[in-house]
Design a protein that fits this description.
Blueprint: E1 9-12, E2 28-30, E3 36-41, E4 44-49, E5 57-65, E6 68-71, H1 74-80, E7 82-86, E8 92-97, E9 104-106, E10 110-121, E11 128-138, E12 145-149, E13 153-159, H2 166-171, E14 189-196, E15 200-204, H3 205-210, E16 214-217, E17 221-227, E18 234-238, E19 241-254, E20 257-268, E21 272-274, E22 278-284, E23 295-304, E24 307-308, H4 311-317, E25 320-323, E26 327-333, E27 340-344, E28 351-356, E29 358-366, E30 372-378, E31 381-382, E32 386-387, E33 391-394, E34 402-410, E35 414-421, E36 424-427, H5 428-433, E37 437-443, E38 447-455, E39 462-467, E40 470-483, E41 488-500, E42 507-512, E43 516-522, E44 531-534, E45 537-538, H6 541-546, E46 550-551, E47 555-561, E48 568-572, E49 576-587, E50 592-604, E51 608-610, E52 615-621, E53 645-646, E54 650-656, E55 663-667, E56 670-678, E57 697-705, E58 733-739, E59 755-758, E60 762-770, E61 777-786, E62 796-801, E63 804-805, E64 814-816, E65 830-836, E66 841-842, E67 845-846, E68 850-860, H7 886-893, E69 897-907
Parallel strand pairs: 12-30, 59-69
Antiparallel strand pairs: 1-5, 2-3, 3-4, 4-8, 5-6, 5-10, 7-8, 9-10, 10-11, 12-13, 13-17, 14-15, 14-19, 16-17, 18-19, 19-20, 21-22, 22-26, 23-24, 23-29, 25-26, 27-28, 28-31, 28-32, 29-30, 33-34, 34-38, 35-36, 35-40, 37-38, 39-40, 40-41, 42-43, 43-47, 44-45, 44-49, 46-47, 48-49, 49-50, 51-52, ...
Length: 909
């Protein structure tokens, strides 16, 4: 569990703060609001820096040695008795052994430590903030032997006999009793050290220090210190706990001669057992590498971060310290307040860990020598990664048509960064701006969760209809999280579903006049997602145009003549025909009939006309009762008398009263001529009907008065005026072309489209009136650009407005003069203009990299007193960009010709 210590250069966050020195001989000093405090913890001094100091700096620590300061590199820190630990948020603790290097030592009872903190700004390497911190600690309860296990080193100290006389001790320079490694070359003190691994290795003092060990003497103690994992340390299992052992014999000089002290330190590197709720830390009860048999336990204490805890404090926090036959056992609840929880995301799966640094301090006493040995261990523990898959709580509210989901819980270091929907990724701010409510919720214990609300009708909600009146709503999501401060990403997928019987079907209604069916409809909740059928025919775009189909966002309408091919005739009378229009709205994927309309009306219709010259005209109608009838095969009684015109619905006959088998009958003052239109089954027409169809018979009758006198009148009046030609109809041809350059000599052809141009590259257009009277003048009324080919679509941008350049445009459209040349004989028939290539954008995003150009042109006759000039009229008083109805207004107001060109694509490279 113990990690190698490379802590004294640490990237962390520290605030700019002026720190005053601690008062001497106070064990605890805190400058209010500074975020820094120092503590004396027995044979340790602790300096704590709060994360409130965070401003994004790098920390460098120096030990103050008189008038000089020494940078505590990781190796020097381990050799000299310094360690540092920091959590990911910048909470930092620096520990120093009271017997460490650069600590002022007064008779092994009073210790003065000075540290200088340098904070180097990451944004500016020249910006440095320095703070000097000093602390004085008093400690006199030294045991004969003391073992200290810190994060990055093992330290053992042993009391030694006094020098020859008290005067010698008094006159000894205390500053030399604990000096910088490499400078302890006085006559008195450590001479050489024998290391056991387990074979002996002998080094003199200088070699000891060069190898990275600490070796020094104070006025009363001999101190040896070793970083972990050194060449002369070794590993040993004690009562099942792995230990690292540092064992030496130190030879030191006194005025009385050379003495030797056997010293050993054994520090645990394991012994931790985890459960889901409790950490159990085991330390051997009998440290055989450190002490001989025959020791009794005098004291044992538990602490956190080097600070002893009282029994009341331990009980309040749920900590226990117990003793078994083989171990000291410290138990800490996972998640206790003295540690911290951390989030992790291995393989995109959410896990947590818990870190805490317990301390064990034990005092033994030897039964025979009565000497005491103190054993103190600071042991950082981090649990193994514990999977904590986020829970998804679906609180969807169908009544209010709202998806509601909660995802959690997470530790405080998790941040929701974005959400992936079916149509793209949105940040939290973008999601809220779009109307999706994203919230963060706090829970006890520093936990949090996140919630999202999305309406059923949002664009990124997927919908389909499993039944005709039921809508199934589906919302796939992926929540994108990051773990701070490292910004480690992970995600959680969520799928939400709901079904509602909320389908509103479309409706149809209709009326008639003497000639037309008028049909209107209202779209349902499914909008325009259906197929329309008139009779047995699907309504195609051509059929929509023929039936004058019109629609808006909510309604549609169409007009169908009663003589249309898709109309069915139910019955026929002498003066009218009963016709029916069948309309069906059909959902083809599921074969659902969404709405239907059977509109039946009587339309005035004269089927027989009798003329005074004896000519009879008759119209036969195909009725629904004879569905297989082909009107062209109908005849009169005389089978040779066939229709003069026929189509799918009608057959028209024209014959004289004395032909085609017509009979004549007298009745009172009338003479009646009768014939019959029909189709015999024994004739050729039998192949075009079915035996199950009824026979088709239509009687044609004309009544004439037997005696009748008609008068006609005639008069002559000279004509006073010359004949005047009536206004006729004709067609002009207007052509718009895109030129390669301003010379207007070479033009792009149809096969060259789409034309590709760079942004702000000029586009040169020419509009020409072809093959027309030389006295006429071509006038450009309006020109504009659209994103789509439809000239009425939006967005659009005006180029020419009321015959002049768009004054709302900073890059103004320019007209170019036209002169006669070998190609142009009538300049008045040509107009030229140019503008720079652009593209449509919304919210700084390019919509599509293309444009289409459209113009309304008029042909003007100057002799008719019309205003044929091209001078600009009064410009529009309002901007003309992105007006939804603009295209429709242009179509309605256009009195001339509509011409278009495109697409023109934007070249990006």
């Amino acid at each position: 569990m113990r990690r190698n210590m490379n802590f004294l250069f640490w990237n962390w966050m520290a605030a700019v703060m002026v720190l005053s020195q601690a008062r001497p001989k106070l064990k605890h000093e805190l400058q209010p609001g500074s975020g820094l405090k120092s503590d004396c913890l027995g044979n340790l001094m602790r300096l704590s820096l709060d994360k409130a100091l965070a401003v994004g700096n790098q920390l460098e620590v120096e030990a103050i040695n008189g008038t000089k300061s020494v940078v505590l590199t990781p190796n020097l820190a381990a050799q000299c008795g310094y360690s540092m630990e920091s959590d990911p948020w910048g909470n930092t603790r620096i520990y120093s052994s009271l017997l460490g290097c650069y600590v002022g030592n007064r008779d092994d009872t009073t210790f003065d430590l000075g540290l200088r903190l340098h904070m180097y700004s990451e944004s500016s390497s020249s910006e440095v903030f320095s703070h000097d911190v000093s602390q004085t600690c008093s400690y006199s309860q030294w045991a004969s032997r003391e073992v200290l296990c810190d994060r990055n080193y093992m330290e053992v100290s042993h009391s030694m006999s006094k020098l020859d006389s008290p005067a010698d001790v008094k006159n000894q320079d205390s500053s030399k009793s604990n000096v910088i490694p490499g400078a302890s070359d006085g006559e008195l003190g450590i001479w050489k050290v024998t290391f056991y691994n387990p074979e002996p290795v002998i080094m003199v003092l200088k070699e000891v220090e060069q190898a990275g060990y600490g070796a020094t003497t104070t006025s009363n103690r001999l101190v040896m210190r070793s970083p972990y994992n050194m060449a002369e340390t070794y590993h040993e299992d004690v009562a099942g706990v792995p230990m690292e052992v540092f064992k030496v014999s130190a030879f030191y000089k006194t005025f009385q001669g050379i003495n030797v002290v056997n010293m050993a330190a054994a520090c645990p590197t394991g012994g931790v057992i985890f459960t889901e709720d409790v950490i159990a830390w085991h330390v051997p009860r009998r440290l055989t590498p450190v002490m001989d048999p025959g020791y009794s336990i005098r004291e044992m204490h538990m602490g956190i971060d080097g600070q002893r805890l009282t029994q009341a404090q331990m009980s309040a926090r749920g900590y226990t310290l117990s003793l078994t036959d083989f171990h000291f056992v410290v138990e800490i609840p996972v998640g206790a307040a003295d540690g911290y929880n951390k989030s992790h995301a291995p393989d995109n799966q959410y896990h947590t860990s818990y870190s805490v640094e317990p301390m064990l301090e034990v005092l033994w006493r030897a039964e025979q020598s009565r000497e005491e040995a103190r054993y103190k261990v600071l042991f950082p523990i981090t649990t193994q990664l514990m999977p904590r898959p986020p829970q998804v709580y679906d609180y969807t509210d169908p009544e209010n048509r709202l998806f509601i989901v909660y995802v959690g819980t997470f530790l405080h270091d998790v941040e929701l960064r974005n959400i992936t929907f079916s149509d793209g990724v949105l940040s939290v701010d973008e999601s809220n701006a779009k109307g999706f409510l994203v919230q963060e919720h706090s829970h006890p214990g520093g936990l949090k969760s996140f919630s999202l609300q999305v309406p059923f009708d949002a664009d990124n909600v997927l919908k389909h209809n499993p039944e005709r009146l039921v809508t199934h709503y589906f919302l796939p999501l992926e929540f994108g999280f990051v773990i701070n401060p490292e910004e480690i990403p992970f995600s959680q997928k969520v799928e939400l579903e709901a079904s509602l019987a909320d389908v509103v079907l479309p409706t149809l209604s209709g009326t008639c006049d003497d000639n037309l069916f008028y049909v209107s409809g209202k779209y349902g909740s499914g909008g325009k997602e259906f197929q329309m059928m008139v009779g047995a025919q699907v309504v195609t775009p051509d059929l929509r145009k023929r039936y004058k189909f019109y629609e808006n966002a909510t309604h549609f309408s169409m007009v169908v003549p009663y003589v249309a091919k898709d109309v069915v005739y139910e019955s026929l009378s002498q003066n009218s025909v009963r016709a029916r229009l069948d309309l069906l709205l059909w959902e083809p994927n599921n074969n659902w009939a969404l709405a239907d309309l059977y509109l039946t009306c009587n339309f005035p219709m004269i089927t027989t006309k009798c003329f005074s010259n004896g000519t009879i005209s008759a119209v036969a109608v195909k009725v629904e009762s004879v569905p297989n009838l082909i009107p062209s095969w109908l005849t009169l009684r005389d089978k040779s008398c066939r229709p003069v015109f026929s189509n799918d619905h009608f057959a028209q006959f024209s014959f004289s009263a004395n032909s085609c088998g017509t009979t004549r009958t007298f009745f009172d003052q009338y003479m009646i001529y009768e014939n019959e239109i029909g189709l015999s089954y024994d004739d050729v027409g039998a192949a075009y009907t079915s035996p199950v169809d009824p026979e088709y018979r239509q009687t044609v009758s004309c009544y004439y008065l037997v005696n009748d006198t008609q008068s006609i009148g005639f008069s002559y009046k000279p004509q006073g005026n010359q004949p005047i030609a009536q206004i006729g109809n004709g067609q002009f041809v207007v052509l718009m072309r895109l030129a390669h350059d301003s010379s207007y000599n070479v033009f792009y052809q149809a096969e060259d489209y789409p034309v590709v141009q760079y942004l702000r590259q000029p586009l040169f257009f020419e509009v020409e009136l072809l093959q027309s009277d030389q006295n006429l003048v071509l006038v450009l009324e309006n020109c504009w650009a659209t994103l789509y080919e439809d000239r009425t679509s939006v967005p659009s941008w005006d180029l020419v407005v009321n015959r002049c350049e768009n004054r709302d445009d900073s890059s103004i459209t320019r007209f170019h003069p036209v002169a006669a040349d070998s190609r142009i004989s009538i300049p008045a028939h040509i107009k030229r203009f140019s503008f720079n290539m652009f593209t449509f954008a919304q919210d700084n995003e390019v919509l599509q990299s293309q444009i289409y150009v459209h113009c309304d042109a008029a042909v003007c006759d100057p002799s008719s007193q019309s205003d044929c000039s091209s001078r600009c009229q009064t410009p529009s008083s309002h901007p003309s960009v992105f007006q939804a109805a603009k295209g429709q207004n242009r179509v309605q107001q256009s009195a001339g010709h509509q011409i278009s060109s495109g697409p023109i694509l934007l070249r990006t490279q």
